[in-house]
Design goal:
Length: about 350
Protein backbone atom coordinates (compact mmCIF):
# COMPACT_ATOMS: atom_id res chain seq x y z
CA UNK A 1 0.00 0.00 0.00
CA UNK A 2 1.42 3.41 -0.99
CA UNK A 3 1.95 6.16 1.60
CA UNK A 4 -0.91 8.28 0.21
CA UNK A 5 -3.56 5.57 0.50
CA UNK A 6 -2.21 4.38 3.86
CA UNK A 7 -2.51 7.84 5.41
CA UNK A 8 -5.88 8.41 3.79
CA UNK A 9 -7.32 5.13 5.08
CA UNK A 10 -5.98 5.78 8.58
CA UNK A 11 -7.78 9.14 8.52
CA UNK A 12 -10.95 7.57 7.09
CA UNK A 13 -11.10 5.00 9.88
CA UNK A 14 -11.18 7.79 12.44
CA UNK A 15 -12.92 10.68 10.72
CA UNK A 16 -14.62 9.39 7.57
CA UNK A 17 -18.36 9.17 7.06
CA UNK A 18 -19.63 5.68 7.90
CA UNK A 19 -23.35 6.26 8.48
CA UNK A 20 -24.64 7.54 5.14
CA UNK A 21 -27.88 5.83 4.05
CA UNK A 22 -26.27 4.04 1.09
CA UNK A 23 -23.50 2.69 3.34
CA UNK A 24 -26.08 0.60 5.18
CA UNK A 25 -27.26 -2.74 3.76
CA UNK A 26 -24.90 -2.34 0.80
CA UNK A 27 -26.11 -3.80 -2.48
CA UNK A 28 -25.17 -2.91 -6.09
CA UNK A 29 -28.67 -1.42 -6.55
CA UNK A 30 -28.48 0.84 -3.49
CA UNK A 31 -24.95 2.01 -4.32
CA UNK A 32 -25.88 2.57 -7.98
CA UNK A 33 -28.85 4.81 -7.09
CA UNK A 34 -26.69 6.82 -4.66
CA UNK A 35 -23.87 7.27 -7.17
CA UNK A 36 -26.25 8.56 -9.83
CA UNK A 37 -27.85 11.00 -7.39
CA UNK A 38 -24.43 12.17 -6.18
CA UNK A 39 -23.34 13.13 -9.69
CA UNK A 40 -23.05 16.94 -9.55
CA UNK A 41 -25.04 17.05 -6.30
CA UNK A 42 -23.83 17.33 -2.70
CA UNK A 43 -24.36 14.61 -0.11
CA UNK A 44 -26.59 16.67 2.20
CA UNK A 45 -28.89 17.53 -0.69
CA UNK A 46 -29.07 13.92 -1.86
CA UNK A 47 -29.84 12.23 1.49
CA UNK A 48 -33.59 13.07 1.78
CA UNK A 49 -34.16 12.36 -1.94
CA UNK A 50 -32.34 9.04 -1.63
CA UNK A 51 -34.36 8.01 1.40
CA UNK A 52 -37.69 8.84 -0.25
CA UNK A 53 -36.60 7.16 -3.49
CA UNK A 54 -35.53 3.94 -1.77
CA UNK A 55 -38.69 3.87 0.30
CA UNK A 56 -40.78 3.94 -2.88
CA UNK A 57 -38.42 1.83 -5.04
CA UNK A 58 -36.65 -0.50 -2.59
CA UNK A 59 -35.66 -2.98 -5.31
CA UNK A 60 -34.49 -2.85 -8.89
CA UNK A 61 -37.65 -4.69 -9.95
CA UNK A 62 -39.92 -2.07 -8.42
CA UNK A 63 -37.97 0.70 -10.14
CA UNK A 64 -38.18 -1.08 -13.50
CA UNK A 65 -41.93 -1.69 -13.15
CA UNK A 66 -42.72 1.92 -12.22
CA UNK A 67 -43.75 4.49 -14.80
CA UNK A 68 -41.28 7.14 -15.86
CA UNK A 69 -43.68 9.79 -14.55
CA UNK A 70 -43.54 8.34 -11.06
CA UNK A 71 -39.74 8.01 -11.13
CA UNK A 72 -39.35 11.62 -12.25
CA UNK A 73 -41.82 12.77 -9.61
CA UNK A 74 -39.48 11.33 -6.97
CA UNK A 75 -36.56 13.03 -8.74
CA UNK A 76 -38.31 16.39 -8.99
CA UNK A 77 -36.18 19.18 -7.51
CA UNK A 78 -32.93 17.21 -7.66
CA UNK A 79 -32.09 18.58 -11.11
CA UNK A 80 -30.22 17.06 -14.07
CA UNK A 81 -33.29 14.99 -14.90
CA UNK A 82 -31.54 12.90 -17.54
CA UNK A 83 -30.05 11.03 -14.55
CA UNK A 84 -33.52 9.94 -13.42
CA UNK A 85 -34.59 8.94 -16.95
CA UNK A 86 -31.39 6.97 -17.48
CA UNK A 87 -31.72 5.26 -14.09
CA UNK A 88 -35.21 4.08 -15.01
CA UNK A 89 -34.14 3.03 -18.51
CA UNK A 90 -31.15 1.12 -17.13
CA UNK A 91 -33.34 -0.70 -14.58
CA UNK A 92 -35.55 -1.98 -17.39
CA UNK A 93 -32.49 -3.03 -19.43
CA UNK A 94 -31.13 -4.96 -16.44
CA UNK A 95 -34.45 -6.79 -16.12
CA UNK A 96 -34.46 -7.62 -19.84
CA UNK A 97 -30.80 -8.37 -20.52
CA UNK A 98 -29.39 -9.49 -17.15
CA UNK A 99 -32.35 -11.39 -15.67
CA UNK A 100 -32.88 -8.65 -13.09
CA UNK A 101 -29.42 -9.00 -11.57
CA UNK A 102 -27.09 -5.99 -11.55
CA UNK A 103 -24.17 -6.86 -13.88
CA UNK A 104 -20.80 -7.65 -12.34
CA UNK A 105 -18.33 -6.85 -15.14
CA UNK A 106 -17.00 -3.35 -15.82
CA UNK A 107 -17.89 -3.46 -19.54
CA UNK A 108 -21.50 -4.44 -18.80
CA UNK A 109 -21.91 -1.81 -16.07
CA UNK A 110 -20.42 1.04 -18.09
CA UNK A 111 -22.66 0.11 -21.03
CA UNK A 112 -25.77 0.98 -19.00
CA UNK A 113 -27.39 4.40 -19.65
CA UNK A 114 -26.07 7.18 -17.40
CA UNK A 115 -23.06 5.26 -16.08
CA UNK A 116 -19.58 6.48 -16.96
CA UNK A 117 -16.17 5.13 -16.06
CA UNK A 118 -15.98 6.71 -12.60
CA UNK A 119 -19.52 5.74 -11.56
CA UNK A 120 -18.97 2.17 -12.77
CA UNK A 121 -15.71 2.01 -10.81
CA UNK A 122 -17.39 3.27 -7.63
CA UNK A 123 -20.26 0.74 -7.86
CA UNK A 124 -17.94 -2.21 -8.55
CA UNK A 125 -15.51 -1.17 -5.84
CA UNK A 126 -17.99 -0.39 -3.06
CA UNK A 127 -20.70 -2.97 -3.75
CA UNK A 128 -18.88 -5.83 -5.49
CA UNK A 129 -15.37 -5.64 -4.03
CA UNK A 130 -13.60 -5.17 -7.36
CA UNK A 131 -10.59 -2.87 -7.61
CA UNK A 132 -11.28 0.08 -9.92
CA UNK A 133 -10.14 3.70 -9.63
CA UNK A 134 -12.66 6.55 -9.59
CA UNK A 135 -12.37 10.14 -10.76
CA UNK A 136 -15.42 12.17 -9.75
CA UNK A 137 -15.29 15.92 -9.09
CA UNK A 138 -14.03 15.51 -5.53
CA UNK A 139 -11.22 13.17 -6.57
CA UNK A 140 -10.19 15.43 -9.44
CA UNK A 141 -9.84 18.30 -6.98
CA UNK A 142 -7.79 16.26 -4.47
CA UNK A 143 -5.40 14.88 -7.10
CA UNK A 144 -5.09 18.17 -8.97
CA UNK A 145 -3.94 19.83 -5.75
CA UNK A 146 -1.80 16.99 -4.45
CA UNK A 147 0.21 16.83 -7.67
CA UNK A 148 -0.25 20.50 -8.68
CA UNK A 149 -1.66 19.40 -12.03
CA UNK A 150 -1.71 22.32 -14.45
CA UNK A 151 -4.69 22.63 -16.78
CA UNK A 152 -8.46 22.22 -16.61
CA UNK A 153 -9.38 18.61 -15.66
CA UNK A 154 -12.02 18.59 -18.39
CA UNK A 155 -9.28 18.67 -21.04
CA UNK A 156 -8.62 15.16 -22.33
CA UNK A 157 -4.86 15.18 -21.76
CA UNK A 158 -5.26 16.44 -18.19
CA UNK A 159 -8.07 13.98 -17.46
CA UNK A 160 -6.03 11.06 -18.83
CA UNK A 161 -3.14 12.03 -16.57
CA UNK A 162 -5.45 12.18 -13.55
CA UNK A 163 -6.88 8.75 -14.40
CA UNK A 164 -3.36 7.31 -14.50
CA UNK A 165 -2.55 8.84 -11.10
CA UNK A 166 -5.89 7.69 -9.64
CA UNK A 167 -5.17 4.13 -10.69
CA UNK A 168 -1.64 4.21 -9.25
CA UNK A 169 -2.87 5.44 -5.87
CA UNK A 170 -5.78 2.97 -5.53
CA UNK A 171 -4.45 0.24 -3.22
CA UNK A 172 -4.69 -3.50 -3.82
CA UNK A 173 -6.44 -3.98 -0.47
CA UNK A 174 -9.32 -2.07 1.13
CA UNK A 175 -10.12 -0.41 -2.19
CA UNK A 176 -13.81 -0.05 -1.26
CA UNK A 177 -12.85 1.96 1.84
CA UNK A 178 -10.28 3.88 -0.19
CA UNK A 179 -12.95 4.82 -2.75
CA UNK A 180 -15.17 6.24 -0.02
CA UNK A 181 -12.18 7.83 1.75
CA UNK A 182 -10.93 9.87 -1.19
CA UNK A 183 -14.46 11.07 -1.95
CA UNK A 184 -14.86 12.03 1.71
CA UNK A 185 -11.57 13.92 1.71
CA UNK A 186 -12.70 16.06 -1.21
CA UNK A 187 -16.18 16.59 0.22
CA UNK A 188 -15.17 17.47 3.80
CA UNK A 189 -11.60 18.85 3.90
CA UNK A 190 -10.23 19.45 0.39
CA UNK A 191 -13.26 21.53 -0.52
CA UNK A 192 -13.57 23.91 -3.44
CA UNK A 193 -13.39 26.98 -1.20
CA UNK A 194 -11.78 27.25 2.23
CA UNK A 195 -10.02 23.86 2.21
CA UNK A 196 -8.99 22.70 5.69
CA UNK A 197 -5.37 21.87 4.90
CA UNK A 198 -4.40 21.81 8.59
CA UNK A 199 -6.50 18.67 9.13
CA UNK A 200 -5.69 16.99 5.81
CA UNK A 201 -4.04 13.57 6.29
CA UNK A 202 -1.94 13.90 3.14
CA UNK A 203 -1.04 17.59 3.44
CA UNK A 204 2.68 16.83 3.90
CA UNK A 205 2.92 15.62 0.31
CA UNK A 206 0.57 18.16 -1.30
CA UNK A 207 2.49 20.09 -3.96
CA UNK A 208 -0.13 22.84 -4.23
CA UNK A 209 0.19 23.46 -0.48
CA UNK A 210 3.98 23.50 -0.67
CA UNK A 211 3.79 26.04 -3.50
CA UNK A 212 1.12 28.07 -1.64
CA UNK A 213 -1.19 27.70 -4.63
CA UNK A 214 -4.01 25.55 -3.24
CA UNK A 215 -6.66 28.02 -4.36
CA UNK A 216 -5.46 27.77 -7.99
CA UNK A 217 -6.21 24.06 -8.31
CA UNK A 218 -7.99 22.52 -10.04
CA UNK A 219 -7.82 24.97 -12.90
CA UNK A 220 -11.22 26.36 -13.87
CA UNK A 221 -12.85 25.78 -17.19
CA UNK A 222 -12.06 28.68 -19.53
CA UNK A 223 -14.88 31.14 -18.83
CA UNK A 224 -17.60 31.65 -21.33
CA UNK A 225 -20.40 34.03 -20.49
CA UNK A 226 -23.73 32.25 -20.24
CA UNK A 227 -26.26 33.35 -22.83
CA UNK A 228 -29.68 34.52 -21.65
CA UNK A 229 -32.83 33.09 -23.20
CA UNK A 230 -36.44 34.18 -22.77
CA UNK A 231 -39.53 32.10 -22.11
CA UNK A 232 -43.19 32.85 -21.47
CA UNK A 233 -45.13 30.22 -19.53
CA UNK A 234 -48.91 29.99 -19.65
CA UNK A 235 -50.72 29.30 -16.37
CA UNK A 236 -54.04 28.17 -17.83
CA UNK A 237 -56.84 27.28 -15.41
CA UNK A 238 -60.28 25.88 -16.08
CA UNK A 239 -63.47 26.59 -14.16
CA UNK A 240 -62.62 23.86 -11.62
CA UNK A 241 -59.29 25.58 -10.93
CA UNK A 242 -57.34 22.79 -12.58
CA UNK A 243 -54.11 23.74 -14.32
CA UNK A 244 -53.16 22.62 -17.82
CA UNK A 245 -49.82 20.78 -18.04
CA UNK A 246 -48.00 19.28 -20.99
CA UNK A 247 -45.40 16.52 -20.97
CA UNK A 248 -42.15 17.63 -22.56
CA UNK A 249 -40.32 15.55 -25.19
CA UNK A 250 -38.00 12.86 -23.82
CA UNK A 251 -34.93 14.56 -25.26
CA UNK A 252 -33.84 18.05 -24.33
CA UNK A 253 -34.23 20.22 -21.25
CA UNK A 254 -36.64 18.78 -18.66
CA UNK A 255 -37.15 15.72 -20.86
CA UNK A 256 -40.22 13.72 -19.85
CA UNK A 257 -41.27 16.18 -17.14
CA UNK A 258 -44.66 17.91 -17.00
CA UNK A 259 -44.55 21.64 -17.64
CA UNK A 260 -46.70 24.65 -18.31
CA UNK A 261 -47.07 25.51 -22.01
CA UNK A 262 -43.93 27.43 -22.94
CA UNK A 263 -43.31 30.00 -25.67
CA UNK A 264 -40.33 32.07 -26.76
CA UNK A 265 -42.03 35.34 -25.80
CA UNK A 266 -45.23 36.89 -24.50
CA UNK A 267 -46.07 37.87 -28.05
CA UNK A 268 -45.75 34.26 -29.25
CA UNK A 269 -47.93 33.08 -26.35
CA UNK A 270 -50.65 35.62 -27.16
CA UNK A 271 -50.59 34.66 -30.86
CA UNK A 272 -51.00 30.99 -29.91
CA UNK A 273 -54.00 31.86 -27.76
CA UNK A 274 -55.58 33.99 -30.47
CA UNK A 275 -55.30 31.23 -33.05
CA UNK A 276 -56.43 28.29 -30.94
CA UNK A 277 -58.23 29.20 -27.75
CA UNK A 278 -60.33 32.31 -28.24
CA UNK A 279 -63.50 30.30 -28.84
CA UNK A 280 -62.91 28.24 -25.70
CA UNK A 281 -63.01 31.16 -23.33
CA UNK A 282 -65.91 31.63 -20.99
CA UNK A 283 -67.74 34.89 -21.33
CA UNK A 284 -66.55 35.86 -17.85
CA UNK A 285 -62.95 34.86 -18.46
CA UNK A 286 -60.30 37.30 -17.33
CA UNK A 287 -57.62 38.59 -19.61
CA UNK A 288 -54.00 37.50 -19.26
CA UNK A 289 -52.48 38.45 -15.91
CA UNK A 290 -48.74 39.06 -15.90
CA UNK A 291 -46.73 37.69 -12.99
CA UNK A 292 -43.27 38.80 -11.97
CA UNK A 293 -40.47 37.53 -14.16
CA UNK A 294 -37.77 35.40 -12.61
CA UNK A 295 -34.54 33.73 -13.72
CA UNK A 296 -33.72 30.03 -13.72
CA UNK A 297 -30.10 29.11 -14.37
CA UNK A 298 -28.93 25.97 -16.13
CA UNK A 299 -25.32 24.86 -16.44
CA UNK A 300 -25.03 26.43 -19.91
CA UNK A 301 -27.48 29.35 -19.97
CA UNK A 302 -29.90 31.55 -18.04
CA UNK A 303 -33.62 31.33 -18.73
CA UNK A 304 -35.70 34.41 -17.92
CA UNK A 305 -39.25 33.19 -17.36
CA UNK A 306 -42.37 35.34 -17.66
CA UNK A 307 -45.49 33.61 -16.26
CA UNK A 308 -48.88 34.71 -17.60
CA UNK A 309 -52.14 33.49 -16.05
CA UNK A 310 -55.42 32.86 -17.83
CA UNK A 311 -58.41 31.70 -15.76
CA UNK A 312 -61.83 30.13 -16.36
CA UNK A 313 -61.00 28.43 -19.64
CA UNK A 314 -63.84 26.10 -20.71
CA UNK A 315 -61.65 23.57 -22.45
CA UNK A 316 -58.22 23.23 -23.98
CA UNK A 317 -57.92 23.24 -27.77
CA UNK A 318 -58.24 19.73 -29.23
CA UNK A 319 -54.82 19.94 -30.88
CA UNK A 320 -53.00 20.65 -27.61
CA UNK A 321 -51.24 17.66 -26.08
CA UNK A 322 -51.63 17.67 -22.31
CA UNK A 323 -54.08 17.29 -19.46
CA UNK A 324 -55.82 19.19 -16.67
CA UNK A 325 -54.46 18.58 -13.17
CA UNK A 326 -55.66 19.56 -9.71
CA UNK A 327 -53.00 21.66 -7.99
CA UNK A 328 -52.76 19.35 -5.00
CA UNK A 329 -52.11 16.40 -7.34
CA UNK A 330 -49.54 18.10 -9.54
CA UNK A 331 -46.81 17.42 -6.96
CA UNK A 332 -47.12 13.73 -7.76
CA UNK A 333 -45.81 14.45 -11.27
CA UNK A 334 -42.25 15.12 -12.28
CA UNK A 335 -42.11 18.92 -12.50
CA UNK A 336 -39.21 21.24 -13.41
CA UNK A 337 -38.17 23.44 -10.48
CA UNK A 338 -39.48 26.71 -12.04
CA UNK A 339 -42.88 25.13 -12.72
CA UNK A 340 -43.00 23.81 -9.16
CA UNK A 341 -42.27 27.34 -7.98
CA UNK A 342 -45.07 28.84 -10.11
CA UNK A 343 -47.61 26.23 -8.97
CA UNK A 344 -46.58 26.84 -5.36
CA UNK A 345 -47.32 30.54 -5.79
CA UNK A 346 -50.63 29.65 -7.40
CA UNK A 347 -51.64 27.49 -4.43
CA UNK A 348 -50.80 30.33 -2.05
CA UNK A 349 -52.85 32.75 -4.11
CA UNK A 350 -55.88 30.48 -4.06
CA UNK A 351 -55.36 29.90 -0.34
CA UNK A 352 -55.53 33.65 0.31
CA UNK A 353 -58.55 34.10 -1.93
CA UNK A 354 -60.37 31.00 -0.72
Amino acid sequence: MNAFSEKLLHWFDQFGRHDLPWQQQITPYRVWVSEIMLQQTQVQTVIPYYQRFMQRFPTLLELAEASQDEVLAHWSGLGYYARGRNLHKAARLIMQEHDGEFPKSFDEVVALPGIGRSTAGAILSIALQQRFPILDGNVKRVLSRYFAVEGWPGEKTVENHLWKVADQLTPQQRFADYTQAIMDLGATLCTRSRPDCARCPVASGCQALQQERVGEFPFSKPKKEKPVRQAAMLIMLNQQQQVWLEQRPQKGIWGGLWSLPQYDSQKALIEALKSSISTALDAGSQSLVEWDKFRHTFSHYHLDIEPLKLERVCEAPAEWQGAWHHLEQADQLGLPAPVKKILGQLEKEYGKNG
